[in-house]
Amino acid sequence: MRARRAVAALSLAVAMTGSGLVVAGSAQAADNRCYISASSATLRSKATTNSTAIAVAYRNNKCKDLDYKGSWVKLRMTSGNAKGKVGWVRKDLVHEPTVDTCTPPC
């Protein structure tokens, strides 16, 4: 009976992975992770250079992307001096790795 359950659970996990559904602990679960690739980036309250500066994040500070607007991306900083801050940053200052790459260690 245990063997049947184990086979059924394994079959379900393989089917979910093959269908593109996220399985807990899989690499696909981290699609929205990113990091600051420029030496520094100013987080702003709106997607414009004229908006209020919220914080400055530095190279390799980790983040999660939340939204996009033109050439801007809305981030939640997850490491560094701006940890916990949410704001808009120009896309060219942020690296958003694919599922296969993630540098620095994410």
Oligomer: single chain
Element-by-element helix/strand order? HEEEEEEE
DSSP summary, beta strand count? 7
The neighbouring-strand order within the major sheet is 6-5-4-1-7
Q: For the CA atoms, what is the radius of gyration?
A: 18 Å
Largest sheet: 5 strands, antiparallel
Number of distinct helices: 1
Mean pLDDT: 77
Q: What structural class do the secondary elements suggest? A: alpha+beta
Which word captures the global form?
Answer: globular
- Low-confidence runs of at least 5 consecutive residues: 1-30
Q: How much helicity do the residues have?
A: 10-25%
Query: Percent of residues in beta strands?
Result: 25-35%
Quote the distance from N terminus to C terminus: 40 Å
Describe this structure in words.
The protein has 106 residues and is α+β, with helices and mostly antiparallel strands. The chain is 16% helix and 34% strand. It is built from one helix and seven strands, in the order αβββββββ. The protein starts with a helix and ends in an 11-residue tail after the last strand. The model is unreliable at 1-30 (pLDDT under 50).
